[in-house]
Design goal:
about 500 residues; 10-stranded mixed sheet; 19 helices; 10 strands; globular; disordered C terminus
């Protein structure tokens, strides 16, 4: 005990010296005051007792002066010096929220959804009155962190039945389906296949992720019929697809009638994989070119069938992109988060609607950028697409429809999920923001056209009238009455 006491005393003395140095020159009284605040820890030291966990926690918070990184560093050093293993948490998350403690939030790195949920939950924590530490993490780390208490809340998570055994979900209208991605060089073969069932394809999947669940339990692919990728990472998916497709292309034509390599994953991951593939092919890695592979194409329609097939609708799973808590935590914590989140959404629908509109816009901008790259690549090669159809209509148009479906903004399957309050109000606000942005762009285009008109002729009256009508409608929705002159 004496040896442990000495180790803790030395660690505490060093920590206090650092604390003093950070504050700059201070009086002896100030030091005494700080020691007084930490009297429980110091008292334990002076009476030859190693302080208990709560004493060390309090001292670390004082020494860290609100800096999360310093608090964690002091906490680790003092616990180590005391010969104690630091507890995972200083109390349940509900207790910490009640006492103004830090709530730890993890957000999965998941395309544009990451920014959306990070901003949403940061504001939600501010509204709820507790400090939050938000960290962007890979999916496996967040899954494990929710189980061991490293994180109190997770976000940008697929709500799947197998995860529901360990997590409790708070759903949003955001919903993403499963899809398959391959290259256009395989389209003649795909056109002869009836469905996604084995052995028509060779799915590239991550075990227990959405694509693996779909191929294993819906289409009954066996383990040996998959190609397993270790990590849920767009680059890994892309590299495996390039390698497998190259090997498939090298087979005799008679052996290319089935086992078409295809990434099978959620649609947002498929979009990330397309971006990686475009980069790799533009850079001609290992001599791989668009001329050799064709362009990345989606294979599944919204009804679960192969694109262009008219057979009966197949089961095509979709998953809500959700917020979650640990199921092993007391149910009161989840109820608290769910209730306060509903209060936050209901009271701030306009603000959340603006975040939602930005999410939709970010995805749309990503599709626009990809569209230009696909069109540029298509111009440089002969594809297997119908020559009567412009390549980008086949390659990019499905993505545009998917973005509408993901964000529930007039998507083709908008009736699948009964959106309820407060999300109905939030979606309405998001659509108004989106319409306003489109109106601003129309107005800018009209102004540019007018400025470029050397004859200074009046702008097209029909276009002006359409814009004025739209302005009047938007103002009317806000309760403002517009009196129109008979003169234009």
């Amino acid at each position: 005990m004496a040896e442990q006491k000495g180790a803790f005393a030395a660690a505490l003395r060093a920590a206090l010296e650092e604390y003093k140095a950070r504050l700059g020159p201070i009086s002896q009284l100030s030091i005494a005051e700080q020691l007084g605040v930490a009297k429980s820890a110091v008292s334990g030291w002076l009476t030859s007792q190693v302080p208990r966990a709560k004493h060390i926690e309090g001292l670390a918070i004082i020494l860290g002066r609100g800096d999360d990184g310093l608090i964690d560093a002091y906490r680790a050093r003092l616990f180590e010096a005391a010969g104690e293993k630091p507890p995972i948490a200083t109390g349940g998350p509900l207790r910490r929220a009640q006492e103004g403690g830090i709530i730890k939030i993890g957000v999965v790195k998941y395309g544009a959804f990451t920014d959306f949920f990070e901003q949403l939950l940061h504001t939600f924590a501010q509204y709820s009155g507790y400090p939050a530490r938000i960290e962007r993490v890979e999916l496996p780390k967040l899954t494990e962190g929710l189980r061991d208490g490293t994180f109190d809340i997770g976000a940008a998570f697929f709500a799947t039945p197998d995860r529901a055994s360990k997590l409790r979900f708070i759903n949003t209208p955001l919903k993403v389906g499963v899809n398959a991605l391959t290259f256009s060089k395989a389209l003649p073969t795909v056109a002869r296949l009836g469905s996604f069932s084995p052995p028509n394809f060779r799915p590239i999947v991550v075990t227990r992720e959405a694509g693996w669940l779909y191929s294993t339990f819906v289409h009954e692919y066996r383990s040996m019929q998959h190609e397993i990728v270790e990590h849920y990472d767009a680059k890994e998916y892309a590299r495996r697809l390039l390698t497998s497709f190259e090997r498939w292309l090298g087979k005799p034509e008679s052996e290319r009638a089935h086992e078409v390599p295809a990434v099978l994953a959620d649609e947002v991951m498929c979009l990330e994989v397309v971006n990686e593939l475009m980069n790799m092919l533009y850079q001609r890695e290992h001599g791989r070119t668009f001329a050799k592979f064709g362009l990345p194409v989606l294979l599944l329609g919204r009804n679960g069938n192969l694109q262009g097939k008219l057979q009966e609708t197949e089961f095509h799973p979709s998953y809500h992109v959700s917020i979650c808590t640990n199921r092993s935590e007391a149910i009161e914590w989840h109820q608290y988060v769910e209730e306060t989140f509903d209060i936050f959404l209901s009271s701030n629908s306009s603000y959340v609607g603006s975040l939602y509109a930005n999410l939709h816009r970010n995805f749309s901008n990503q599709i626009e950028t990809m569209d230009k790259e696909l069109a540029s690549a298509a111009d440089s090669l002969t594809t297997e697409l119908d020559p009567k159809v412009r390549p980008k209509e086949v390659l990019s148009e499905p993505w545009r429809r998917l973005v509408l479906a993901w964000t529930h903004m007039d998507g083709p399957d908008k009736d699948d999920y009964p959106v309820v309050h407060p999300w109905t109000t939030i979606l309405a606000a998001a659509k108004r923001y989106t319409d306003t942005k489109a109106l601003e762009e129309q107005t800018k285009a009209l102004d540019a056209q007018k400025a470029a008109n050397d004859t200074a002729s009046p702008p097209d009256s029909a276009a002006v009238e359409a814009i004025l009508r739209r302005v009047a409608e938007m103002l009317a929705q806000s309760g403002v009455t517009v009196a129109r002159s008979s003169k234009t």
